[in-house]
Amino acid sequence: HLTDESIKAIAGCALLTSLDVSGCGNLTDEALQSIARGCELTSVNVSGCRNLTDEAIKALASCSLRSLNVAYCGKLLTDESIKAVAASCPSLTSLNVADCKFLTDSSIQAIATGCGSLTSLDVSRCKHLTDESIKAIAGCALLTSLDVSGCGNLTDEALQSIARGCELTSVNVS
Description:
This protein is of the alpha/beta class. It has helices spanning about 5-10, 30-40, 55-60, 80-90, 105-115, 130-135, 155-165; strands spanning about 20, 45, 65-70, 95, 120, 145, 170.
């Protein structure tokens, strides 16, 4: 089991650009904040790290990420962290927020506005999202992959807007 201490040890690797600690459920905000301060991260996968809060994700957002996976971290994450990503990561191309239970339309709308290079979005099992999120995402002309599986509030209107606005190659609406 990796601990905060092992992650803090690599925080001094100034050339580190990619970090995958998926499934490391013991990690806390402190470890990720340390990495964010010491490295030039562009790609981060913290999926399944259920102890992380908005504070860790906001720190990572300061790295100008191009890829972020926070799937299954939804126990403590809110719109606040995803809005920080939208504001600080204009070059973001891939975002996975699957099963982030507390996200609402406002964070996904912020991503649509702030991240014009987005090509892949997974919002599966984000149960509070409505058509408004997907309509906003339809403005992301580069979007090629979208997963909205388990988003029970979506209607035909959402998919019709995506079909008109994007050149999707992959869609999951199960």
